[in-house]
User: Fold this.
Amino acid sequence: MSIDPSPSATWSKLESRAKLLRQVRAFFDDRGFLEVETPLLAPEVVLDTHIEPIATANPTGDARDAMNSSPAWFLQSSPEAHMKRLLAAGAPPIYQISRCFRRGELGPMHNPEFTMLEWYRPGDTMEQGIALLADLAAEMLGAADVYRTSYSDAFLHHAGFDPLEIDDPSLGEVAAEIVGAEASRTMSRDDQLNLVLVERVEPHLGHEAPEIVFHYPASQAALARLSTVDRRVAERFELYCQGIEVANGYCELLDPRELRERMQREATRRVESGLPTLPLPEKLLAAMQRGLPPCSGVALGFDRLVMLAAGVASIGEVLAFPAERA
Amino acid sequence: MSVYNTSDFRKGLKVQIDGDPFLMIECNFVKPGKGVAFYKCKLRNLLKGTVLDRTYKAGQTLEGADITEITAQFLYQQAKTFVFMDTETYEQYELTEEQVDDAWKYLKEAMECQLMLYNNNPIALTPPNHVVLKIEYCEPAVKGNTATNVTKPVKVETGAEIMCPAFVEQGEYIRVDTRTGDYLERAKAEDA
Assistant:
C-alpha cells in the first residue's frame, strides 16, 4: 500500500482558519482579555464519564522505567482546571486557544486532537456570559441576530415533550423508538435525554440564526452552578449553528464541596462503566477552596467555527492533518 | 461469527440485523460535548436492497454477517437460472433473474464477475465496471453526424438495448459502463 503524505485541508481552508484565529484574538484583545497558555500535559483532569483523556508517560520519570511505576499524566481534555486556577489567583478576564485531547472521538465533527477556544470573565452572570457568546458568534459568523431558547422549550418545540417534567417510563418509550427497547433500558435518564437531543432536537437548532440553548437539567450541570430560581435547572448554556454544537458555557460552580461531590459521582459512574480510574482534580479543588470569583466561562470548538465560516461539513476539511493522516 | 463493538463500526462493515445481512453504508459518530456518544448508521439490506437508519449507543454490539466476495466466471444461462463458477475452487453457483438484476445486460460467456455470498449462498452479482459489447442491430448511422448528444437505441449481443450516439454502426463494438448503463466510447473487436 502506498503512503499518502498530503494534507486533507485545502490552502483556502487553512487561510480561513488563520484569519479566524486573528479575528478571535482581536475580539478578545479589544475587550481587555488576557491571552493565556496553560499545560497540555498534567497529572490531573476534570472527571467526566463521557470524556476520555489520553494517558501518557510521566514526564518526570525515567524513560527506561516505561510507564510502570510512576503514575500516568494526561493530555488535557480541556484547559478548564488550569484557567480556573488562574482565576482563583486573581486573573483578569482571560482567554486561551489551546489543543485538547479526547480519546475515541472520531467522526465528521470530531477529531481526538482539536482546538478549543476557552474564556472566562470574572463578575459575569449567565445572562452576561450568554451575551458575550452571542456577540462572538454574530461577529465570527456574520449573523445579524442570535436566538436564545431554553432547553425545555427546545425539547417542547422539536421533540414534543418537556424534558424537565416527562416521567421515566414515557422518556424510556421515546428512547426505545430510536435505539430499540433493549438498548433504551441500559441507558440512564440523562443518556436518554441526550439521545433525543442528538436525534430530534440538535438537527433543528441554529438554522435561521445562531441559537443559544440555556438552562440544562440540573443532572447535566457538569461544572455549572444550579439556578437559584429553579432548582431543576443549571446555569449551563450551549451555542448551536446549523444543527452543530459549537460551544458550551457555564455560570461557574464556585463551591468546592459541591464540585468534589460531583467529581466523586463521575468517578463512581466511570467505575460502573468499566472505565479507567482517574485521580480527582485536587489542585482545582484546592484553588476553589481559596476562592473562585463569581464568573461565567465558555469553551468553543474552534475547528467547528472554522467549518461553519468556511461552509464545509467535515472537520477533516479544516485540519491540515486529521488523526487518520497524522 | 465475529461481534463488532460500536468502536469497530465503519463504512463497509457487514453485519447481521434481525436475521438479514446488512452493509454499513454510513456511520457517523455523534456526541454531545457533555453526554454519551452515539453512532448514527445507514445500513443497506443485502437481500432486499432497502436502507435502514439506526442509532447505536457507544458500547452496543452487532453480530458480523457471513459475507464473502469471490471472483466467478459466467458459464451459461438456463431458463431463468444463471450459472457461475468460482475461478479458484471451480465450485458452481446458481443465481436467479432477481439476483442478477440488470447485470444480465452485460453478461457474456466466460466473463469474470464479483459474486457476493451470504452463508455460502450467492446473493448479488457485480459485473466488471466496463464491458465491450458487439452491436447486433441498429438504425444506420446518420452521415456527418458526429455529435454525441444525438442518441439512438442499439441492440447488443446480449439482447440488451443501450442508448448510443447516432454515429455508431451495426457490427461495431462499444464500451459500456455497467454501473450507469451508459455508452462510453467505440471499441475494437479485440477488446471484446
Q: What stands out?
A: The radius of gyration of chain B is 22 Å. Residues 16 and 65 of chain B are 5 Å apart (CA to CA). Helices of chain B lie at 97-100. Chain B touches chain A at residues 7, 28-38, 40, 54-57, 60 (CB under 8 Å).
